[in-house]
């Protein structure tokens, strides 16, 4: 099967090859498809002039309904041999989506129309017609519409799958762009792409795809409720069984235990104790919070509980948040309690070390549909104490179930979080129960291989 993955973000976009979590997830999915024997191409936009000489121009494409000069298609990179980058001056920005004031770029509709259409024309020019187009996020939504409508004679037999993480991000643009990106008046209605007087690019993927996925069944149920769908509740209800929840995975080549530890609970606990001793010293429970410190991501709850945590005989590790007022406050508190609070820089290598040493990950997030931090922690044998939200609510088996591998709580009141934390620490004090819980967490399969099969089963069922 030929599979085209369209993503606004990918590690190939920068010379370090790191990229955003969304981009790394797409590449991990692509690799899982390849292991199944599929021919996979990934196409992403290039937001900065290319500085890597390993990329070369493999094609120049022009889209007939866009009044723009040709776009260059870059390929042939030895590391990213199956990745294409769409390069064009209109795509180049300091920030891919927002201007210096934090507002959407006013020409985002044109920018991502160029990306989507160029990716499809590139396939057609090489007679590489995919059996499946899997497009990610609102930035790729127009590719689904163009494949279904503008290029229907070429992609009429292609399955169209659209995935998004959070309906709060809809790609809203001025309606005046409609004609510039090839959309006729039939699309400028509420049942089309019009949304409260604006153009909604997320709706392009939702309406024109054969299947839609989002990252959590719990989140899907929220979207169907009034006030949780950001104005799209009625649309989601009308899509019916076309929408399915597929929990995101983790790259298990990176997030994994040393060989053999996952099958030996005692050895796992011993290894984690060694990692904890190396990182923070002592035998006290080590609690970890990792976050961007954005609103709703839980830092406010951690700060509220900090006086209680300092009285509980635990050590607290915090990853991320540099440059924020909250982090500066934590620095002040940590300076007075250097043996209790440790602050760590952001980065996968550091996060992996911290989660390996941790006893418990704290995840008091208000809204995080597709967050995978809990899964990264669990692959390293670290249970999570999480608010019942998003994919974590779907996947964690909460205490007191016999197969528990973590903890969930239903509201973000400080006393609720504190009560569940104390219960988790009580269980941690029983080595047999705790080692069994850690081993169950480490034994869960969060690999992209199973997730890739889920996606393919969805489009096969819809055949």
- Average pLDDT confidence is 93
CA-CA gap between termini: 14 Å
The CATH superfamily of the largest domain bears the name Glycogen Phosphorylase B
- Domain unit count: 2
What is Rg? 23 Å
CATH architecture of the largest domain: 3-Layer(aba) Sandwich
In the CATH scheme, the class of the largest domain would be Alpha Beta
Can you list the strand order of the major beta sheet?
3-4-5-2-1-6-7-11-12
CATH topology value of the largest domain: Rossmann fold
Strand content: 15-25%
Structural class comes to alpha/beta
Number of strands: 18
Q: Low-confidence spans: pLDDT under 50, at least 5 residues?
A: none
Percentage of helical residues? Answer: 25-40%
> Can you tell me the overall shape?
elongated
Helix tally?
Answer: 16
Q: Can you walk through the features of this model?
A:
The protein is an alpha/beta fold and 463 residues long. The chain has two domains: 2-249 and 448-461, Glycogen Phosphorylase B (Rossmann fold), CATH 3.40.50; 261-442, Glycogen Phosphorylase B (Rossmann fold). Helices cover 37% and strands 17% of the residues. It contains 16 helices and 18 strands. It has helices spanning 21-35, 108-125, 141-148, 152-155, 201-208, 217-223, 233-239, 265-279, 299-311, 325-336, 348-357, 373-379, 390-395, 414-428, 431-442, 448-461; strands at 2-6, 39-45, 56-61, 71-75, 83-87, 132-136, 159-163, 172-174, 194-195, 198-200, 211-214, 243-245, 286-290, 315-319, 341-344, 360-363, 384-387, 407-409. A nine-stranded mixed β-sheet has the order 3-4-5-2-1-6-7-11-12, with helices on both faces. A six-stranded parallel β-sheet has the order 15-14-13-16-17-18, sandwiched between helices. The protein has a three-stranded antiparallel β-sheet with strand order 8-10-9. Helix 1 (21-35) packs across helix 16 and helix 8 (265-279) packs across helix 11 (348-357). The relative contact order is 0.10. The mean pLDDT is 93.
């Amino acid at each position: 099967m030929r599979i085209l993955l369209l993503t606004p973000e990918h590690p190939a976009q920068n010379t370090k090859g790191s990229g955003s979590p969304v981009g790394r997830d797409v590449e991990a999915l692509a690799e899982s498809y390849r292991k199944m024997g599929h021919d996979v191409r990934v196409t992403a936009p290039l937001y900065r002039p290319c500085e890597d000489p390993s990329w070369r121009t493999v094609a120049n494409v022009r889209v007939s309904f866009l009044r723009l000069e040709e776009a260059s298609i870059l390929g042939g990179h030895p590391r990213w041999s199956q990745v294409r980058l769409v390069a064009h001056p209109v795509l180049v920005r300091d920030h891919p989506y927002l201007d210096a004031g934090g507002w959407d770029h006013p020409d985002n509709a044109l920018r991502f129309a160029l990306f989507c259409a160029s990716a499809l024309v590139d396939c057609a020019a090489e007679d590489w017609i995919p059996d499946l187009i899997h497009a990610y996020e609102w930035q790729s939504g127009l590719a689904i519409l163009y494949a279904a409508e503008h290029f229907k004679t070429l992609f009429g037999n292609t399955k169209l799958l659209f995935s998004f993480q959070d309906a709060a991000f809809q790609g809203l643009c001025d309606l005046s762009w409609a004609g510039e990106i090839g959309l006729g008046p039939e699309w400028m209605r509420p049942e089309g792409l019009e949304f409260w007087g604006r153009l909604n690019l997320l709706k392009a993927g939702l309406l024109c795809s054969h299947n839609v996925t989002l990252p959590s069944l719990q989140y899907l149920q929220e979207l169907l409720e009034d006030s949780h769908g950001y104005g799209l509740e009625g649309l989601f209800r009308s899509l019916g069984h076309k929408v399915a929840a597929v929990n995101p995975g983790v790259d298990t080549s990176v997030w994994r235990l040393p060989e053999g530890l996952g099958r030996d609970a005692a050895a796992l606990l011993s290894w984690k104790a060694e990692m904890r001793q190396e990182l923070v010293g002592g035998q006290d429970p080590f609690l970890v919070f990792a976050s961007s410190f954005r609103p709703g991501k839980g830092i406010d709850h951690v700060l509220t509980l900090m006086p209680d945590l300092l009285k509980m005989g635990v050590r607290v590790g915090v990853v991320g948040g540099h440059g924020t007022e909250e982090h500066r406050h934590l620095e002040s508190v940590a300076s007075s309690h250097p043996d209790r609070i440790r602050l760590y820089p952001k980065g996968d290598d550091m996060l992996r070390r911290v989660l390996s040493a941790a006893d418990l990950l704290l995840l008091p997030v208000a809204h995080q549909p597709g967050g995978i931090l809990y899964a990264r922690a669990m692959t390293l044998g670290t249970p999570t104490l999480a608010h019942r939200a998003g994919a974590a609510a779907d996947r964690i088996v909460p205490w007191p179930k016999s197969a528990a591998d973590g903890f969930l709580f239903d509201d973000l009141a400080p006393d609720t979080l504190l009560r569940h934390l104390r219960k988790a620490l009580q269980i941690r004090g029983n080595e047999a129960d705790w080692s069994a819980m850690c081993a169950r967490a480490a034994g869960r399969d969060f690999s992209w291989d199973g997730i890739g099969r889920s996606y393919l089963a969805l489009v096969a069922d819809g055949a």
